[in-house]
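Schema walk-through. Below, the input block comes first and the output block second. Nothing else is stored per chain. Lengths vary across the set, and this one has 265 residues.
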Amino acid sequence: MMKKLSRYRRHKWAAPALMVVSLIGLGTTFSFAAEVPAAQTAVATSQSTQVQEGKQIFLRGCSSCHGLNAEGSGIAPSLIGVGAAAVDFQVGTGRMPMADMSQQAMRKKPVYNAEETAALAAYVASLAPGPAAVTDASLSWERDGNVAQGGTLFRTNCAMCHNFAGQGGALTLGKYAPTLMGVDAHYIYEAMITGPQSMPKFSDKTLTPAEKLSIIKFIERANTEPALGGAALGRVGPVTEGLLVWTFGLGLLIGVSVWLASKAR
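--- output ---
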């Protein structure tokens, strides 16, 4: 093979052909190498634009309580280091912004849309490192979660506040743990890693990411579990069930007593 090729090395077209091939190879290599920095620059520019948009939203809607530089104030905490996850949870669930910071933030219709929330989260995340926001698509709780393990972990770490079936419950000083029914999976995950308001923060050493997914799977299963034993009565525990039995049972006994007394006359 090499002998056949060596015949043409002195051909008059050999040098021009070699030059053309070399130029094409050099141009292709340069183009490929230039595309990578260009793509990185485009991503960086997009992120910078999103951060600037988030800063403007922050200055308009959040700085009056959290300070012009998110340093906090007497009525609102600092947002430096809380990360994008905290912003996505608080703003995405409509808890923030709120008019009265002395009250517990309630879940309501969000003020900002998804794009504005993402921009606001990007700006706060740019101030200092913190937990990153997640999405439902990035959580593989259906595949990797374990319902039995999640139930055990939920009863150990969450049931004392959120009720054994995730229906929520009362806390001290007028506060309450909200229901977990109908809550998107990524908001539950973000709440566990950020610890909003009275809720403790569960680090990966306390609950591993896999255990968090198992808890989410248990909650999602409880959300769709049918009430096979009859009316669920809100699944808030024995108080409601006892009240129902007491009211109707006592009423039935009184009615029977009145009926027997009327027959004895």
